[in-house]
Amino acid sequence: MSLSSTLLGCRTLALAAALAAPGWAAAQQLAPSPALSAFAARAKAQGLSAADVASPLVTSTTFDASTGITHTYLQQRVNGLVVFNATGAVHTNKDGKVLFAIQDFVPDAAKLAPSPTPTLTPEQAVTAAAVGLGLPRPVGLHLLNDARVADGLVYNNGGISETDIPVRLLYARVNGKLVLAWNVTIAQLDQQHYWNARVDAQTGRLVDKNDYTVSEQATFGQYTQRAQHQQQQALAFSHVEAPAATFEPTGTTAANSLTVFPFPFENPKEGARQAVPLAAVGSAYSPYGWQVSQAPTGTFADTYSYLSTNKYLTRGNNVAAYDDNSSTASGANAANFNSITTSPDGGSTLNFDFPFDQTAGARNNLSAATTNLFYVNNMVHDVMQAHGFDEASGNFQYKNATTNGKGLDPVRAEAQDGAGRNNANFSTPIDGNMPTMQMYLWDNVSSALTITAPSTVAGSYAFGTASFGPSISTLPNGLCGNIVPVNDGVSADDGIHSCAAPTNAAALAGNIALIMRGGCTAPATNNFSDKVKFAQAAGAIGAIIYDSDPTSTAPLGLGGTDATVTIPAIGISGVLGTRLKAALTGGTVGVGCAKVTTFADWDGSFDNGIIAHEYGHGISNRLTGTPYNSASCATQTYNNGDSYTQVMGEGWSDFFALWMTTKPGDDGSTMRYLGYYVKGGTNSAGPGIRTKPYSTNFTRNNLTYGAIVTPTATGTFTYQESHSLGEIWAETLWDLNWQFIYKYGYNNDLYGSTGGNNKALRLVLDACKIQACNPGFLQGRDAILRADSLTNRGANSDLIWNVFARRGMGYSAKAGDRLNGLPIFTGIAEAFDLPPRANVVVLANQNSTVVSSALEAFPNPAQDLLTVRTQVSSATPMQVTVVDLLGKTVLAPTVVPVAQMQQRGVELNTSRLAPGIYVVRVSTTSGIYTTKVTIQH
């Protein structure tokens, strides 16, 4: 039996079961009556009526073995129908005592609810949803199950959906009112959207929708044109470098192994590939192993495998990784998933070692890319399961080892997906239905302005492109010629702003015009395209516009549209433009050539950070508001085209990516550029795919809660877009993570429970399980505080409050109306204060670049001997260890008396260590201290 038919068939049956019997999960472990009674009593005290809480639907009840807490999730019902996203939860300890309860039910719902009798049939609702979503009308639609409309019907795919189409009658909240609606779920054939849409059951009007697919806004590439303006550290006058010639594998291969870029490496620029072992059957977090042929017969291996074809593919219980490079959007995904040729074959020895050469082109690296994608998905699965994203929480597995959760939902990880470029996405349907990760190829271009005269500014520099006029990339020889400053005769700075027809038209004819941004009294003529047209009319063959900020170092992107512009234009930084303008005085003419060179594509399947980011959407979606309400409680929901939820999913995903790629000896104040590999950048200067680098250093990342409602000079709100909004949340979690590390030390065992990094991750995941549906930033903060109270008895409360207050989410901050306010950010206000009983905590290492100033390691660089000394106190002898950048111990632990460490220290023999960078770790009762050292021989 083929993998695809087995999984898709099971997927349909599981989805039908979930919708036909919404309490299916709860039936495995019934909600305790005292919990429901306590929930009802507390909800009434909060202003709800007895009718509002009379018959809530128990969507799931799960027991968290690590905390001893039972989570019971509820949904409001009126007239026997659920109210979409009107959710509640009650959390009890092992003795059944209610720890706390939350709810977001609709007050007086019975009075607000219209008649439960629809005018549209469910078949008509599917057609109405398809039309409202801009999809083709369904063909040959027919019912597959026999159920009540309140519980959910399932129709075939109608030729418009990758899966069968669930339909359910419910009430939807729209602008403070309840509307009888059909909820229709359609997975687009191109996998770009997985819609969960609600259409008015009387009129067929699309009233709101949410998307199980979390895509990057437009594309990462388009998004970062704006980001590059703000990354002042990136590309600062450094010469443009061509991509590295190749990334070589180590050559160390073995049976039962994958040759990959292993965590904590983020991408190929951080180290060579290595052979890592496949997790074996019986491993702690993947009991059926990583690769399907390892699974014992009689489990899922009999159907979820290709053993009969003698193929040993990158497929297992947690993830099926394969190539989806087909350019045919319709049906391409299902067809490739059904093909045995689209996954690399490791042979009977399971040796997944394939060549990788960046210059050879993406298709020549396909097997290596798919193998790396397979590895990263499995690693994130295992690490997150160790910290609480387990089967009961709706993790992604074909077969569950316990009776918790539904299974049947490994990640479909698609390498070199042909449906797009410069992007990635992740679809998260409800538990029991397979998520899909699409990883794309990325443009690898070098945009260089090479100036040969005057000699004082000679060199190669990065430039930004224009969204109007001819593209530089279409010019075989580039934009080359003499560079002459414009003189419009009316503007400041010698008329270089090009606000009117130039007075030096003769000098500009046949040459490249140099123009300064802004400076025009008529606002319209400040448009980039208008400035270029004045030069164009004078006979210029192209234009260079430089930023009016003389300190800016980022290349200037030129926005706007104008079909009448016929000459190419580029943008450069204020620093370069100011120098160039100064050099072209007194009639001096510059000489330059701007070219765009295309190299072999970057492959997102080699960027471990982006893969972890995408997987992270599945984590936050399944954990927030129960895995049976996946993606409806943690992603954007749209009402008549307007988003009315404050999205935090991008922030959680960035945090997970940063966390997975943290190396022993790293420092929170260092700048981290997420996605710099696919942007052709560096880890020290970017550019990445965000507006700012992540750093605990406030001078490097000063984002606060108030940035959401702070307009730019042009009146736009940069931090209301989902990715930039997420940056604020991710930066705050990043700060929190590092404060935990400074307090509890760093543990390079990513599966462990000790160490500040592990404690912080666990706290974030625990908070997701107990936070409100569609939380805002302050609800997310409160969930973290509550999680710390439940699991740590509030030991970190003061620290948490201080971290959030530093980023504007203090005690007096205001959340606004996160559900019903349009625009959704109305009422947000930042504050930096603490609660009355909270203590001020001096946050460690916010603006320094040394992790442990109390720890000395000298000489540095060292050769054969290294002395380590510290003045830190400890109640027991200290332990000194040296590890490499992957956390592997290279010098066994040495136990040293405290007095000796504080006086003469300990001398370590480093003569047998290979030259390179290592991390010294000193464990004390007050924490773990680290510093980096270089060994040279």
Provide the descriptors you would attach to this structure in a database record.
937 residues; alpha+beta; Nuclear Transport Factor 2, Chain: A; Elastase, domain 1; 5 domains; eight-stranded mixed beta sheet; seven-stranded antiparallel beta sheet; 19 helices; globular
What would your notes on this structure say?
This protein is an alpha+beta fold and 937 residues long. It has 5 domains: 34-112, Nuclear Transport Factor 2, Chain: A (Roll), CATH 3.10.450; 122-211, no CATH class; 213-235 and 250-438 and 604-620 and 664-702, Elastase, domain 1; 445-598, Glucose Oxidase, domain 1, CATH 3.50.30.30; 855-935, Sandwich (Immunoglobulin-like), CATH 2.60.40. Helix content is 23%, strand content 22%. It has 19 helices and 38 strands. The strands form 9 sheets. Strands 20-19-26-22-23-24-25-21 form an 8-stranded mixed β-sheet, sandwiched between helices. The chain has a 7-stranded antiparallel β-sheet with strand order 5-6-7-8-9-28-29, with helices on both faces. A 5-stranded mixed β-sheet has the order 10-16-17-15-13. β23, α11 (528-537) and β24 form a beta-alpha-beta unit. α14 packs across α15 and α17 (777-792) packs antiparallel against α18 (797-806). Residues 1-30, 217-252, 327-332, 334-338, 640-644 and 847-852 have low confidence and may be disordered.
